[in-house]
Design a protein that fits this description.
Rossmann fold; 8-stranded mixed β-sheet; 707 residues; 3-stranded antiparallel β-sheet
């Protein structure tokens, strides 16, 4: 049965970003769409990491041939994109992000590269050193293999302790994100085979493998602190209820050293050596630190990361990972006969069959890899990784638009459609070939339109120069203001109105948002003239004080799941972009696809009305007819689309934004004129946009200088 792990993201994350398992799409379509989805997926996780850690930690995908572990500087995530994996991957990203924030990777490097052991192990490692002729203490080469083995085991213990420390920190400091940790632990630690293994006769011999298995799962409700000598002592040393006492990685390392000594003291693995023993030397009944004896039914991890297993993870239905019977019962249905506890705890323990043993071995390897940061993550090609980074730099967001729209013959209410909003068109985005409106095929023609627009914009800027003029009004004989020395004598006559008040009036700040229909029907002269007009207005604004311009394009983005998606591209914003961006990039913008008019307006409604107090805002629209757009999510045509567009234009006006809409025609109007007037009403203008005088006249009607 399908099981989603999107429990904690479903309330805010739109399910439509995931592929429908039943959809059949071409590889090319799927590849293109997945890049956009992966970008959104990466950005969501990045936001989580940055919020929880309070640091701008980079989040990136695992590129082929690259390391997949956290290097202390960035978080690497899997490119496996579906709702079954999202919550665990978020949890893993938060875990790795907390390592970046809290773990001192230098401590581990000093241990592995420079033999910097914790002080708790100083007596133990002393016999492995000798003094050279120069009087320096060096490692005995005869014990080279032993040294590496000791460091690796200590590193594994450090990984476990440090994980408990950092997860506890984040878990307590950001309780709203606990669900993602729960999903992560369910995926990597909680499984029925581990529960069975803890209760079985397996790993009850004092070996490093047994201790690591029992330690990694020591918070599991099925733990048995009597399974191994010293295990209870390790439990008390950990003192998980107070794990926050560990403030640094070095303190975690010191605790790892103490645990190492307890284990080594009970293994006696290196029989031919005689190191000075450390630790408490106690067996299963040892309790040397005075802490209370915690039973397996107690809860030491209250308000702590959910390491306690509950059978809710992989393999929860008492079957193996592949859904087959795991052999917990024999063919007759009776429980297998167990073996006695060699450590004297009493009772019988169910032995595992060969298949269960293999499953347990795989589960243990999975846990150990997690602790070592060696988690398998789906990779992407370096080329795709670069494209995703390009999409991310373009600052792309999605908005659900058209929700509730009455459509079709039966007037079914639409569930809405995902509309992409590109807030920053870049040269890298153009070069990527991802967006159908951005390319090199009309470069020369578009460049001519841009250059002509700059020339005509200079003329238009002179026609709008009145916005730069200041008007000075001087009002004499006032009770306050600037003293008029020539009127001082009037004080003697009881007249104290001897001041001048000087008022300097300037033009009100103005924001023009130019939105252009970039559908394929705008090709040819329509596009040339429209681009020329838009560039001209932007150029004129650049010559005028207190006037800013935003230029956006309405179009489509090809999608694997639904065919295409509405797209809104903000190509220029004078509040943050230099005019040179128009000169460099606008020659690569061309029309393509259909006309999701109102859907695009709805997607950027917040942008249209988001201005500073006192700023006059205007929407200047260029279009050649009625809206039309279809995909698997929505049917957006005819009167339904016209009414929806008119509704969005009404919302723009209600927000205090002035509207001016130019109809771009090739001489034939037909029913388009009627639809256009329904959408824009009194703000409809049917003009030749190549006529700068006429354009300036209509613009001045909207944003004439107000003194």
């Amino acid at each position: 049965m399908y099981k989603s792990n999107l429990n904690y993201s479903s309330f805010w994350l739109d399910r439509s970003i995931w592929d429908d398992d039943d959809q059949e799409v071409t590889k090319v379509e799927k590849k293109s769409n997945d890049l956009m989805k992966l970008m959104s997926y990466k950005r969501s996780i990045s936001n989580f990491v940055n919020i929880v850690t309070g640091q701008p930690i980079p989040v990136t995908f695992n590129g082929r041939g690259e390391d997949s572990y956290t290097d202390g500087k960035q978080v690497v995530i899997s490119a496996k994109m579906n709702d079954k994996e999202f919550d665990p991957i978020v949890g893993l990203a938060l875990h790795e992000g907390s390592h970046v924030k809290l773990t001192n990777f230098e401590s581990l490097r000093l241990l592995m590269d420079h033999d910097v052991f914790p002080s708790s192990m100083s007596d133990y490692i002393k016999p492995y050193y000798i003094t050279n002729d120069g009087g320096d203490r060096i490692w005995n080469d005869d014990w080279y293999g032993v040294r590496g083995d000791i460091k690796n085991k200590l590193k594994n213990l450090l990984n476990y302790v440090e994980d408990r420390r950092i997860d506890n920190y984040i878990y307590k400091s950001a309780p709203g994100y606990r669900g993602y940790y729960e999903s992560m632990y369910d995926k990597y630690f909680h499984s029925n085979v581990v529960d069975k293994g803890l209760k079985s006769s397996e790993h009850r011999d004092e070996t490093w493998e047994s201790y690591m298995f029992r330690l990694i799962n020591i918070t599991n409700k099925n733990r048995d602190l009597n399974a191994l000598k010293g295990l209870r002592t390790i439990w008390n040393l950990l003192d998980l209820k107070n794990i926050s006492r560990l403030r640094t990685t070095d303190e975690s390392l010191e605790l790892a050293g103490k645990i190492f000594m307890v284990i080594q003291n009970n293994i006696d693995e290196y029989m031919d050596t005689d190191p000075q023993q450390g630790g408490d030397g106690q067996g299963q009944d040892g309790d040397t630190d005075g802490k209370s004896d915690m039973s397996s039914d107690s809860n030491p991890t209250a308000d702590a990361p959910p390491m306690e297993g509950n059978g809710s993870g992989e393999g929860k239905d008492s079957k193996g990972d592949d859904g087959k019977d795991d052999g917990s019962t024999d063919k007759k249905g009776s429980q297998s006969i167990g073996v006695g506890n060699k450590n004297g705890a009493g009772g019988d323990f169910t032995p595992l069959n060969d298949r269960q043993k293999k499953m347990l071995e795989n589960a243990i390897k999975k846990q150990e890899k997690f602790l070592d940061g060696d988690i398998q993550k789906k990779t992407i090609t370096k080329a795709d990784k670069k494209k995703i980074d390009t999409l991310d730099q373009a600052d792309i967001e999605t908005e659900v638009t058209g929700k509730g729209l009455q459509q079709g013959y039966y007037r079914n209410a639409s569930q809405g459609v995902q509309t992409y909003v590109i807030k920053n068109v870049t040269k890298n985005l153009i070069d990527s070939g991802i967006v159908p409106h951005l390319g090199f095929w009309r470069k020369d023609e578009n460049d001519k339109a841009v250059r002509k627009g700059i020339t005509l914009g200079t003329i238009l800027g002179k026609k709008l120069k009145t916005r730069n003029e200041e008007r000075i009004n001087n009002t004499p004989r006032m009770k306050s203001g600037k003293l008029n020395g020539r009127m001082l004598h009037e004080i003697g006559f009881g007249n104290f109105q001897i001041f001048d008040q000087i008022n300097i009036n300037t033009a009100t700040p103005c924001l023009l948002h130019i939105s252009i229909d970039a559908s394929s029907s705008m090709s040819g002269d329509k596009w040339y003239n429209t681009q020329t007009a838009a560039v001209a207005i932007a150029k004129a604004a650049s010559m005028t004080d207190n006037m800013n311009v935003v230029i956006s394009y309405r179009g489509i983005y090809y999608n694997s799941g639904s065919g295409c998606q509405p797209l809104m591209m903000i190509a220029y914003d004078s509040r943050k972009d230099k005019f040179q961006k128009i000169q460099n990039l606008f020659k690569f913008i061309s029309p393509s696809g259909t006309t999701p008019e109102g859907l695009c307006f709805e997607a950027i409604l917040k942008e249209l009305v988001k201005t500073k107090n006192g700023t006059e805002s205007y929407l200047i629209n260029f279009s050649d007819g009625w809206p039309g757009f279809d995909n698997k999510e929505i049917s957006y045509n005819g009167q339904y689309a016209v009414d929806h567009t008119a509704e969005q234009v009404k919302k723009v006006r209600q927000a205090g934004v002035g509207v001016l809409s130019y109809f771009i025609s090739d001489g034939y109007y037909g029913s388009s004129k009627s639809y256009f007037e329904q959408m824009y009403g009194k703000d409809s203008e049917f003009i030749n946009v190549d006529n700068m005088t006429q354009l300036a006249k209509t613009l001045n009607k909207k944003f004439e200088v107000k003194i």
